[in-house]
Amino acid sequence: MTTVDHAGARRRPWTARIAAAAGVAGIPVHLALAGEHAGHAPAVLAGLAVLALVCLPCGVKLWRRPGDRAAWLSLLALSGLMMLLHLGMRPEGAMLAVVLAVPALQAVLGAVAFFHRYG
Question: Which residue windows are transmembrane per the record (predicted)?
Answer without folding.
Answer: 44-63, 70-88, 94-115
